[in-house]
């Protein structure tokens, strides 16, 4: 929309001035002013034939109507013509506002619709519409300026489509704040014309002027508001400032402000109190006056000027009393209009904290100094400096005490120029006890503090001190509970107040230094003594050495080095000492060294081969020496006794040869010196006693202790003989080794007497004869056994010649040993059995043994005897068979007894059998007895009686049958017969018929027709009977009994024909734990009725027939029962069974299987 | 006298009952121990004649059970097997005193015994 170009003036009506499509805005303060203008605007339009729309508040609408009515314009007329429309601003606004903003589409539809209708109704050409709206003002007043501006824009868009005259109005108070000017500017931008408030038509001029007036008006109003607000704020500020000032003044933290020129502008109470100044002594002064370090304050000011902020800047401030406060400063600059206003500074007093830290640090420093220093002199300079720094003094002096005087050993000054005269007066000076400050401290053993030396007498150096400006002095003793060793004193140029804490600390340091001196003194003494010892050792003519447990030579003196022929110590030092020991003494020496390093003392003679290859004989005394780490080493003093032993050189050579012999033959030697009671053993001898090298007793008494108690007396007796006669002695004795085993030793020795006939030494050899003794013993024992044996024991060589013959053999065969030894063994073998001897000999030659070979032999008198032979090969040392040893046992008697026993056994078994069938006989007899009684009773009633008798007959038949069977059992035991096994089984089933009936047992017979067998029929019947009665007992509640008999083969041996009988019941089964005992005699699970013999007898019978018995059994819910299965070979085809009962001979293999 | 005869062989029990009833007793025959106990509770007999070795409960166990209900009932055991004597001896050690007769029994002797008062006390 153009704003400037449409600026034409019309003389007749002001409202038309903006032109055809103007969009003017009207700011007003007074409502009547608005309504006046509006009335004219609308009135002119309507009366001119144009259309008009007003969108106003209800109140304004009413006012407008009234005003125009007064002017004679009835709005109803143009309204009825469709030229006038009045809308409520709020309602209309609500119809197109969406989300707080005017919706463009709805606005155009609604307002655009009205405008075009109004335009059509206009009576003039061109058709014009005048519009007045307050919706923007409404939005503005609601605080939605954005929405208002947006709506103005929509109005402008609409004006582009429909030419119409738009007039807006805002109450001016909406823009009274200074900051609202911007909003007004934005409203101006949307309008082509501005009508300032309270404008009179006459004043209507150019737009620029009007606009300025409106702006000025707005500004004036804004200013007025600001003044009111500012007054309020200033009041508030004053109050706050007072608060803040009060707060700062009374704060605990020290604070001050410093101006750009360095003068102090302000300081609070805390700061003044910290430094001890009054306000006027501080404020207004330059800050640098109060800093101890001028360079520090310069630095602070420089930094602050550069607008740097200070955090924890360390500084030292001067108190009014002259002391120094250590502080940390936090400061920054308050900039005023971009310039340095003043500093704002917080000062924290850290004096106490620093002091204690410094003291701790000083104490640490001193401790470290002392721990690192070798002597006090070495540490003194640093020590004095450290203490001076801590005490804030300029000079210190160290005084050391001797017997009677205290001498100044050292002084320290902060600078060379300080206290020059006083230093000269001090250095090298000495005092006696009680004299001067050091002397007084020495005397009292306590620290002394002189705050002001002018007040003191007894100060020999007072004049020099005063001349050099010394004000205070302090000193403390150096020493421990054992006494005062010295004094340290300090001097300061200013007065120093007594500081108890500091004194306590210095006293502690004094003790620390004292302890240091004590320790160093002791160390020095030790070193001196070590030096002396070393000197002695180095000059002694004997070899002194220290050897580690592993043989490393740790030290050796000059004499020792000469002995081993070392030109330089490093030729042997640190190397193994064992290398210089003669090879045959090396082990001995090693053992000795290890013993010494284990804590023992000892003496040893040994040979060395020196580095030049010369042999020396040495004698050494050694003792353990404890290392600082607790380990032990050997300290030894050795003497070269080669010269003394020179005469024995030759002997040594032979000794060496002897030793070789000893090593080969388990021979040990010893030599005992009567004078020293030293008993030297060769290593072999030590071994003979089961001892480790070096562990043998080197005294004679010690050796005696090693002899077995049982032999001690005898050995001592022989020793005595040796001592008395000087003749060679021989003895045998036992020794008990440390492991408890017993060994035999044979000793041969001689005592050598000296000129006066007294024993000088004793030497001899010893041999281990344990092996020989044991062999002798074994031989003796064996011979005794052989001789005393009841069995005939003989031996023969591989040619069959008798080589030994014991007493029992003599008795058994009638030949004496003398008669038969050297004769062929066939003498006692029956001629027909001679070939057996060849078989025996060939077996023996193969190294085989013959066990319990039962055969027949002939006595000297021709009588034959049954014997059992056990023959073993005899081997020589190389394991080669050289002969045979035989034990002959006469079993003729045994055989007889055996036969008798078997008969008895059989009878007993028969008796047991009878017992089992007793029930079968007694029951029918009971029935018969009763029936006969009844027949007799009922004899009148013939019918009844005969029925009784018939029953009795049946029962008697049963008895007779059983009796026949039983008797048959005895009768036909003698020899196997061919019989029908089927018939036998039928007989048995008949025998037990009653029992089957009473127990509801069903019989199932599964025979192949007529199974024949050659065997002992009675025994087979007995075996089967046992199985059937077992089956009956297994089924007390009834069941089925299956009897099967078939021709078969032996398991695993198809060629052996026979019969298999199976007896199967559906009874309770045999518990697994019982199965392995089933065939044991007297094993029974039926204590009431069983004898425990049934299955044992059955098995015996079956095995006698070379048969096999197997059992299978199941217990449990899902099927149970037991099946015994017997296989019997048909004896008609393979030889007959042995007569009698089976023996339990060990070499008989029992083919009895138990299968689960 | 009211009597129960127990034997697993029916012919023995039946003939004995026949003999006893013929002599004026009132006897019944059963073939096992359980039945004997059941009948004893119902009939409350004065005497029990029982075989010893039987399937199920043996004669002695049967007798002990019956004595619990009828403490005064007379027990006469009879048996054809030697093993029975062991069982009687064991019962004796437990405090039971039973008369035992060997099979075959002469019926006259049995009847005579029943006429006499019991020889041994029943405890």
How would you sum up this structure in a few lines?
The complex is a heterodimer of chains A (1156) and B (123). Chain A is of the alpha+beta class and 1156 residues long.
CA-CA gap between termini of chain A: 122 Å
User: Can you tell me the residue ranges of chain B where pLDDT is under 50 for at least 5 consecutive residues?
Assistant: 119-123
Report on the biggest sheet of chain A: 6 strands, parallel
Task: Characterize the overall form of chain A.
Answer: flat
Low-confidence stretches of chain A: 1-20, 199-205, 968-972, 1134-1156
Based on the model shown, name its key terms.
heterodimer; A: 1156 residues; alpha+beta; 6-stranded parallel β-sheet; 6-stranded antiparallel β-sheet; 42 strands; 43% helix; disordered C terminus; B: 123 residues; alpha/beta; 5-stranded parallel β-sheet
Fold and architecture overview:
Chain A is an alpha+beta fold. Chain A is built from 36 helices and 42 strands. In chain A, α1 packs across α2, α7 runs parallel beside α8 (181-190) and α31 (942-971) packs across α34. The model of chain A is unreliable at 1-20, 199-205, 968-972 and 1134-1156 (pLDDT under 50). With 123 residues, chain B is of the alpha/beta class. Chain B has helices at residues 10-22, 33-43, 59-69, 83-93, 107-115; strands spanning 2-6, 26-30, 47-51, 74-79, 99-102. In chain B, α2 (33-43) runs parallel beside α3 (59-69). The longest helix of chain B is centred in the N-terminal third of the chain and has 13 residues, at 10-22. Chain B is globular and about 35 Å long. The model of chain B is unreliable at 119-123 (pLDDT under 50). Chain A binds chain B through residues 915, 918-919, 921-923, 925-931, 933-934, 937, 948, 951, 955, 994, 998-999, 1036, 1088-1089, and chain B through 8-12, 15-16, 18-19, 22, 31, 53, 55-56, 58, 78, 80-83, 86-87, 102-108.
